[in-house]
Specification:
This protein has 143 residues and is mainly α. It has helices at 3-31, 33-38, 42-68, 70-75, 78-100, 111-137. The protein contains 6 helices and no strands.
């Protein structure tokens, strides 16, 4: 695998972040979030929406930084490897949460949601794999 291939794989990872943003934006309707939040105090309800918004901004930021600076990340400078390591750890933690913290079974009510959830976890695995690979091999591959 050469650096050019890694750049393209990172750019695909950047697009995956936008897909995750879309999936996250569709989640409130799927889980009936407004109904569940309606019984909470206003502060807690707003806190939840602020957290939800910050996660969305992170996804946009991760995606944009990855897409725009893919070549820089692949070059393997220490800061690039650190960023890739951080993103690999972030997505590993998210994958662990998906597997062991969230019980989404009550919401996987049709084949579309089940396929979507499977795709979501495959996306997390891809992000872990590509960021780990770039952190580990960045700057060591041929042009």
């Amino acid at each position: 695998m050469n650096n050019s291939t890694l750049v393209h794989l990172l750019q695909l990872a950047a697009v995956c972040h936008l897909g995750l943003l879309w999936a996250g934006a569709s989640t409130p309707k799927v889980v009936g979030l407004r109904k569940h939040l309606a019984v909470l105090p206003a502060f807690i309800r707003r806190l939840f929406y602020v957290y939800f918004s910050f996660i969305g901004m992170l996804l946009i930021g991760f995606g944009l930084l990855t897409f725009v600076f893919a070549s820089t990340l692949v070059a393997g400078e220490p800061i690039a490897r650190a960023v890739c390591s951080l993103l690999a750890l972030f997505w590993t933690a998210r994958l662990v949460v998906a597997a062991f913290v969230f019980d989404v079974r009550p919401y996987l009510t049709n084949w579309f949601y089940r396929v979507g959830y499977w795709a979501l976890n495959c996306t997390f695995i891809y992000l872990v794999a590509i960021y780990t690979l770039v952190a580990w091999k960045g700057g060591q591959l041929g042009q």
